[in-house]
UniProtKB/TrEMBL annotation:
The keyword Signal applies. Residues 66-82 have a biased composition (Basic and acidic residues). It comes from Brevundimonas albigilva. Residues 1-18 form the signal peptide. This is Lipoprotein. Residues 92-101 have a biased composition (Polar residues). Residues 22-101 are annotated as: Disordered. Keywords: Signal.
Length: 101
């Protein structure tokens, strides 16, 4: 009976340690997500710069709207990448797993 109790305590301790650290998959997913967000932001910034130089308000508004969509899509894709990375280890490390919107 004592051995079972010790084994159970050890199992809970190991699960706690595993949940505290990020796995390599989590880190890779987070890095990839950061790159996706940065690329989306850079593209959005370029579109916003074009909007500032647009000859008409309609063109400027269209470019600004496109910039917003580009950034939203990049954020959504980055969240998906992080979600997949957080679940790749069976949910043992979910501290960086974003919630689904």
């Amino acid at each position: 009976m004592k051995k079972i109790a010790i084994a159970a305590v050890s199992l809970f301790a190991l699960a706690g340690v595993a949940a505290c650290g990020e796995s390599a998959t989590d880190k890779a997913a987070e890095s990839q997500a950061d790159a996706i967000e940065a690329q989306g932001e850079a593209r959005a910034d370029s579109l916003e710069a074009q909007a500032a130089q647009a000859p008409t308000d309609a063109q400027s508004d269209a470019l600004d709207a496109q910039a917003d969509r580009v950034e939203e899509n990049a954020d959504r894709r980055a969240d998906q990448v992080e979600q997949h990375g957080g679940n790749a280890d069976g949910g043992m490390t979910t501290q960086n797993t974003p919630t689904q919107h």
